[in-house]
């Protein structure tokens, strides 16, 4: 087989491979586990907030990050919606808020509103 023939055979195989790839169905969307909105599940979700907002939403003295404990649930939910939409200024919360469903945000807001 000459070089020219080998080139055309390789080009044909590459074209066939690209057509085969183009006809593949799109991959399914990622499947996530259902939210655990039990009391212990919400407490576990809230633990993710502790690094910045303090344990149980009680910020450390002198912290520049506001505590969440005792804040009205509606205020927390509204702030999270604004972070998700990118309309409330933040450094990290835009990305973090997008990781929670509306049900998880509501459960977290309820949890923190009850912390004293």
UniProtKB/TrEMBL annotation:
Organism field: Usitatibacter palustris
Highest taxon of source: Bacteria
InterPro entries: Cyt_c-like_dom, Cyt_c-like_dom_sf, Cytochrome_c_Oxidase_Subunit
Keywords, ordered alphabetically: Electron transport, Heme, Iron, Metal-binding, Signal, Transport
Coiled-coil annotated spans: none
SUPFAM superfamilies: Cytochrome c (SSF46626)
Entry protein name: Cytochrome c domain-containing protein
Pfam families: Cytochrome_CBB3
Signal peptide positions on this chain: 1-22
Start and end residues of each Cytochrome c domain: 36-116
GO molecular function annotations of the record: electron transfer activity; heme binding; metal ion binding
């Amino acid at each position: 087989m000459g070089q020219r023939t080998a080139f055309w055979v390789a080009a044909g195989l590459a074209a066939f491979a690209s057509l085969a790839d183009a006809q593949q169905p799109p991959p399914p969307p990622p499947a996530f586990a259902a939210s655990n909105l039990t009391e212990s599940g919400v407490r576990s979700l809230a633990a993710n907030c502790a690094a910045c907002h303090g344990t149980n939403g009680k910020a450390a003295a002198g912290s520049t990050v506001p505590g969440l404990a005792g804040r009205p649930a509606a205020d927390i939910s509204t702030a999270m919606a604004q972070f998700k939409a990118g309309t409330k200024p933040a450094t990290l919360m835009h990305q973090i808020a997008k990781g929670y469903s509306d049900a998880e945000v509501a459960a977290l807001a309820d949890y923190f509103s009850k912390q004293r």
